[in-house]
UniProtKB/TrEMBL annotation:
Phylogenetic placement of the source organism: Bacteria, Pseudomonadati, Bacteroidota, Flavobacteriia, Flavobacteriales
Presence of keyword Iron-sulfur: no
Species this chain originates from: Leeuwenhoekiella aestuarii
Keywords on record: Membrane, Transmembrane, Transmembrane helix
Name of this chain's protein: Spermatogenesis-associated protein 20-like TRX domain-containing protein
A GO BP annotation: carbohydrate metabolic process
Ranges annotated as spanning the membrane: 7-26
Length: 704
């Protein structure tokens, strides 16, 4: 119904849209002229501070700003972006830094700047408005709203001329035809509310392998079988999709899906979305071959890709995947780790307004840097004329694994590895003399929680305790700095004003807590996971649906319920998985039933738009294939857990205890001097065994 309503808005109120400009995504450096200073100077967000010396009278998001708009009867500009957004920087330089633009904005509007990473709720509600109007959105996100916050217009990047023209037109219309503007804003606000009103669906769904396979076949239609990923000129890594696929190919006998997953993982690891000099992944590829990226680096991408390649290493045992885990962790711990021990949000794409300047190479630079086997270096990293990018530069990427390249070049793998170490050392020495892109140094709780889970996965896959130790340190830091009042913050940095945590902060921290419990067997993590889960239910439950609201605090023009998985998994899909895991651990039927109700309620969307709901597919796997609780009890628990952890075991929870405990999974199962493994399914446990192989044989799923 909301789609029809959006169409009605377009056809009835065409006057707004005649001034729309195409959706683009753009960036720049802040001006050095401090002739002007606005209220953003008192903020701590790097993105807001980049606009603190604009001639525009920017204010941060606040109720006071809207009260000011009401008292002066002015429209409000809400301009949303983030620090590493390239086109946000461009619009700041070309438009918001200009005196003539500021004159129009200051005279006729109240002007609010929002860092979407600090206020994802504000971003979500107005992104929905832009998507209803245009069909898609992006950043910078620029919306013009009434003094009550209801949106009148929404778009993304605008040129200076288009922006001034748009503002003058909207200001004139609001003054001369306020009732028309109000009517449109009310209808658009109703459309936003409708989109977030998911209701309660009680129709039963029988989750079967047949139903799952039918939907997977629809999903396959959008697979790029040549280069991996999804079809399209821009490609995102989408870790939530890859993690689902790793579970699916482990449980099923789908050879095509396994080959496609392997292809995608190889190309993401080998090609240009990976930084071959310092490690770490860029945000996305701007071409279908994964060769040239958009150069910003985000914590949430790299955190999730640690999990992806840890799981992939368990499945495929490829040295390349282990290498990517190790190098990505080294990059994060070197560049993203703050003094407090938590990890910062992002690294900009630009240096002095030039995207990729830190990462690209001139041919003459490479000739000076690489003094040993330069022709081989060129072949490995594809330094060919056909691959020249902007400013006659090259971006390094590979297309073959070490073994494939060595076979084609007739050299030993040991020789290539030694050469790569030497090449990389020389490249790093040269690059590190350049100006590092700007950091967004705020600590975002949900993203750090993703990193904790990624590090736990890396520990389990590789058996290296440094990953687990780092995960525990980050966790301790977050509880110390962001859980002071026993309520999570969303983000923090020095001198920042604390904002209440959002749904994803609580949900991802619940998962991180249980991951740490499973890896360490320490009850403090289990207790905290349970506490976070219960707090989530108390703070974010929606009385009108089985889902959870994004925001528990400030009232916006609509509640927000997000269910689709994108560059991050949706908090609702992970909440449903948390309920399932803790439901199995505690034998809590209430949790299990709620998880199934959530999957049932989202089923229609999952089958209609399968590419957007990968982690709901993971939940469907959980409810389609057998689900096991594996409890290891006794003196050799750590050793046996480590052996289990070398295998990818979807549809299981793996827990252990070296002493007697009162949880049902452990009750009356401790035998002094012995260690037993209990494999349980639906509250029925098989005979205890002493070896991992015996336990695996007790599971019905043949791929284990």
């Amino acid at each position: 119904m909301y789609k029809q309503s959006a169409l009605y808005f377009v056809t009835q109120l065409i006057w707004v849209y005649t001034l729309l400009v195409p959706v683009v995504s753009f960036s720049q450096e802040p001006t050095s002229d401090f002739k002007h200073t606005n209220a953003l100077i008192n903020e701590t967000s790097p993105y807001l501070l980049q606009h603190a010396h604009n001639p525009v009278n920017w204010q941060p998001w606040s109720e006071a700003a809207f009260e000011q708009a009401k008292s002066k009867n002015k429209l409000v500009i809400v301009s949303i972006g983030y620090s590493s957004c390239h086109w946000c920087h461009v619009m700041e330089e070309e438009t918001f830094s200009q005196e003539d633009v500021a004159q129009v904005m200051n005279k006729n509007f109240i002007n609010i700047k929002v860092d979407r990473e600090e206020r994802p709720d504000v971003d979500q509600v107005y992104m929905t408005a832009v998507q209803l109007i245009q069909g898609s959105g992006g950043w910078p996100l620029n919306v013009i709203v009434l003094p009550n916050g209801r949106p009148l217009y929404g778009g993304t990047y605008h040129t200076k001329a288009d922006w001034i023209k748009l503002l003058n037109s909207l200001s004139k219309t609001y003054k001369e035809q306020p009732e028309k503007a109000t009517e449109f804003a009310n209808r658009l606000a109703a459309g936003i509310q409708e989109k977030n009103d998911l209701g309660i669906k009680n129709e039963p769904v029988f989750f079967s392998k047949k139903l799952l396979n039918e939907t997977i076949n629809t999903l396959k239609e959008n697979w790029d079988l040549k280069y991996g990923g999804l079809k399209g000129q821009q490609k995102f890594m989408l870790p939530a999709n890859l993690n689902f696929l790793l579970d699916y190919v482990t449980l099923s006998n789908d050879a095509q899906a396994k080959e496609y997953t392997n292809l995608s993982l190889d190309n993401i690891a080998l090609r240009g979305v990976y930084d071959h000099v310092d490690g770490g992944f860029f945000r996305y590829s701007i071409d279908e071959k994964w060769q040239l990226p958009h150069f910003e680096k985000m914590l949430y991408d790299n955190a999730q890709l640690l999990s992806v390649y840890a799981n992939a290493y368990k499945v495929f045992k490829k040295p390349l995947y282990k290498e990517r885990i190790e190098e990505t962790y080294k990059f994060l711990s070197t560049i993203f780790k703050s003094k407090s021990g938590a990890y910062i949000a992002a690294l900009d794409a630009d240096v002095n307004g030039e995207e990729g300047a830190y990462y690209l190479w001139k041919l003459e630079e490479l000739e000076a840097i690489i003094t040993d086997r330069f022709e081989l270096f060129k072949a490995y990293y594809n330094i060919f004329e056909s691959n020249v990018v902007e400013s006659e530069s090259y971006h390094l990427f590979a297309t073959e694994t070490n073994s494939e390249f060595c076979e084609n070049q007739n050299i030993s793998e040991a020789e290539l590895i030694n050469l790569k170490i030497q090449w990389k050392t020389n490249l790093q020495q040269w690059r590190h003399q350049r100006q590092l892109p700007r950091k967004d140094d705020k600590i975002i709780i949900s993203w750090n929680a993703l990193l904790i889970s990624g590090l736990v996965d890396a520990y389990e896959a590789l058996g290296d305790a440094k990953y687990l130790n780092e995960a525990q340190k980050i966790y301790t830091t977050l509880l110390k700095n962001a859980y002071i009042t026993q309520n999570l913050m969303h983000s923090y940095k020095k001198n920042s004003k604390p904002d209440d945590g959002f749904l994803d902060d609580y949900v991802f921290m619940t998962k991180a807590s249980f991951d740490l419990y499973s890896a360490t067997t320490e009850l403090k993590y289990l207790d905290q996971a349970t506490k976070f889960l219960n707090q989530t239910k108390e703070k974010f439950s929606d009385n009108e649906s089985v889902f959870y609201k994004f925001n528990s605090g400030e009232k916006l023009i609509s509640k927000i319920i997000t269910t689709n998985d994108g560059v991050q998994p949706s908090a609702n899909s992970i909440m449903a998985q948390n309920l399932l895991k803790l439901g199995h651990f505690y034998y809590n039927e209430g949790y299990l039933n709620e998880s199934k109700k959530m999957l049932t309620a989202i089923h229609e969307k999952v089958t209609s738009f399968p590419g957007n709901y990968s982690q709901w597919f993971t939940l469907q796997l959980n409810m389609t294939y057998p689900y096991y609780e594996i409890a290891v009890v006794g003196k050799d628990t750590p050793t046996l857990l480590s052996e289990f952890n070398t295998m990818h075991l979807p549809n299981t929870i793996l827990v252990g205890s070296s002493k007697t405990q009162n949880q049902e999974l452990f009750e009356s199962r401790f035998v002094a001097g012995e260690t037993y493994i209990y494999v349980c399914e639906e509250k029925a446990c098989k005979l205890p065994v002493k070896t991992v192989n015996e336990a695996i044989n007790q599971m019905e799923t043949e791929n284990y």
